[in-house]
């Protein structure tokens, strides 16, 4: 009966029945709360969760955990480094696409020109057709 | 670098305290950017930020503060997903681009494999094959348009392995709904450019994060 959530265990307090943390910080994953607590602090997490609609609180807790985990892994950039790298990858992919599209345009232009040349050359074939 | 006694930094103004010469916040929260500290304080709290900064070398602190400011800004704009929503959106964009690239490459190879018998193209192909040690001898247009130095290998890896693992583990355990994420972050992508390239956003106009 006395099963405190990970947050209340960490904070060494009684876990009330309406504990804001308990649905998202189960006792079997103490590291999860320790991680978010280190970055955000308990009161900030509680405030943020309180402001979020009930059906989205779990998602919010998960995203906070992810960002906190990234920040502990990389204290300087956290998850922002991933965002930066994704931007670089997107820019690179855009450049690659532009190059390939330019090449396609080149081929199309060549084909068009070759077709024109072929048509023009045909005009000089069997004189009987064109010259009277 | 600390503020003088008659111009407290944004943090000390917010916290309504005297800004000491050795104030840890002063170099990174100038008084003309009050929103920056307000956001960071709201999401992380002053003492957590102090602890984080104290664990870093001084030369790392500016980048750390700027990335924290960005995260705080994203979290306040999107309280449910914060930066995670931005990451999800960018991943989606990147996947879309890779599909577009794949289609474009496919179309390009159709032209390359046409076996065009035009005298112009054959001559160009011969020239390309003989003068350039290119590993795509049939890419007639590469050196004419893209330049000889272009590398046509594009990376399948979105970001460094440890970040990939981070994202994969997170995705595997949480199963985000991509459409829900997209709806929530549609407004978040705007300030991303402000962080990526220095611009006055929620107060951060100093510099962008350089992950290198």
Gist of the model:
The complex is a heterodimer of chains A (132) and B (212). With 132 residues, chain A is mostly helical.
What's the helix and strand layout?
The complex is a heterodimer of chains A (132) and B (212).
Chain A: H1 6-11, H2 30-39, H3 42-50, H4 57-73, H5 80-122, H6 127-130
Helix pairs in contact in A: 2-4, 3-4
Chain B: H1 10-15, H2 34-43, H3 46-54, H4 58-77, H5 82-112, H6 119-131, H7 142-146, H8 161-174, H9 178-185, H10 190-196
Helix pairs in contact in B: 2-4, 5-9
Strand content of chain B: under 5%
Please provide the ordered H/E string of secondary-structure elements of chain B: HHHHHHHHHH
Structural category of chain A: mainly alpha
Q: Classify the secondary structure makeup of chain B into a structural class.
A: mainly alpha
* pLDDT < 50 stretches of chain A: none
Mean pLDDT of chain A, to the nearest integer, reads 91
Give the CA-CA distance, first to last residue of chain A.
109 Å
Rg measurement of chain A, Å: 32 Å
What would you call the shape of chain A? rod-shaped
Largest protein interface, residues of each chain: A-B, 55 and 71 residues
Helix content of chain B: 55-70%
Shape of chain B: elongated
Query: How many beta strands in the DSSP annotation of chain A?
Result: 0
Note the gap between the termini of chain B.
25 Å
Tally of alpha and pi helices of chain B: 10
Q: How many β-strands of chain B, per DSSP?
A: 0
